[in-house]
Amino acid sequence: MKSTPIRGRRAGMLLVGALTAAVALVGCSGESAPVDDSDAVVDPYAPEVTDILVAGYKNAGGSPVQAAADAGITEEYGISIEIQPSENAAAMLAQLVSGEVPIGMVNGFFSVPAVMQGADLRVIGELIRGVEGVQTLEVLPDSGIDGLEDLAGKRVAVVGLNSGHQGRIASAMIAEGLDPDDVEFVALGWNEMPAALEQGNADAVVVTGPAQLQLRSELGTKSIFDMAAGRFAEFPDAQYLVNGAWADANPNAVAAFQCAAVIRGQELVMEDQAAYEDALRAYGMSEEAIAADVKLIFPAANEPAQIIPDIMFELGWIDSEFDISEITVPLPDNC
């Protein structure tokens, strides 16, 4: 893909423009109403639709879906869940807003501005929380970059502009008295990171899993920033987002998904290492990568990820504070 350079607070304006166009596709306007499911009665065993498509990644993050299918959990609720691989979170968001896909693995850095522009989207479950050492900002050993203070004038590749990666790096720089506007952030796909660093198209890249292993073993890279350390410990890296109109039309299917994937699937991969590793194999991960894998936290929960809009407001990516609990749907209690 072609990366688009972006600088500091201008990034928010460009993203808002893209989101406005996406929202216009479905005729939304104004802010979404707060979610109130206090009186809703759902039956996860009677889904209105049985085949559920999820825009996301077939990697460790999607392991609960695969594990739930392998264990027959999805079948118990009368559903099947298929992950449709997507290039990045921005692409998933566009699919969700347009109604092309009902559910996506999208975090608040993308969902919050979309909702503020009028998109009807809801958070129906946490997906992953970060663990130290899993997602890191890597540089070449002879780059002369030893910390965030050395990033001025450098090109940093992240998976999605205005993403959680860029947000945490920028927020951490501000906390150290540095100016993130001095950094050129570019968007690359996960699989493009190693080549970009090796070929000099980026001075630092965010990596995880096989790409992290590849860079460290082949190029001897070093980490200068951990995405889940310090105040970002157990950071809510991704959530399951649903198209609001689809959720209103299929409340039982939403509940079935929450029960099968968010609650039981995530409990399964946390408690059963063999089930987790079998899911990784199903997604094509090598035995070497599985052996080196550090499992993320898969919470069987849906806690409002308030730290995300707070960071966005700090960086000027949104122009007012946002209460993410207003779009967070509680998990059913009758799984």
Topology of helices and strands:
Blueprint: H1 10-25, E1 51-56, H2 63-70, H3 73-76, E2 80-85, H4 89-98, E3 103-105, H5 108-116, E4 121-129, E5 135-139, E6 155-158, H6 164-175, E7 184-187, H7 193-198, E8 204-208, H8 209-218, E9 222-226, E10 236-243, H9 244-249, H10 251-271, H11 273-282, H12 287-292, H13 307-315
Parallel strand pairs: 1-2, 1-3, 6-7, 6-8
Antiparallel strand pairs: 3-10, 4-10, 5-8, 5-9
Question: Your description of this structure?
Answer:
By secondary structure, the protein is an alpha/beta fold. It has two domains: 42-130 and 234-327, D-Maltodextrin-Binding Protein, domain 2 (3-Layer(aba) Sandwich), CATH 3.40.190.10; 135-232, D-Maltodextrin-Binding Protein, domain 2, CATH 3.40.190.10. It is 38% helix and 16% strand. Helix 6 (164-175) crosses helix 13 (307-315) and helix 10 (251-271) packs across helix 11. The longest helix is centred in the last third of the chain and has 21 residues, at 251-271. The chain is globular. It starts with 9 loop residues before the first helix and ends in a 20-residue tail after the last helix.
Task: Characterize this entry briefly.
The chain has 335 residues and is of the alpha/beta class. It contains 13 helices and 10 strands. α6 packs across α13 and α10 (251-271) packs across α11 (273-282).
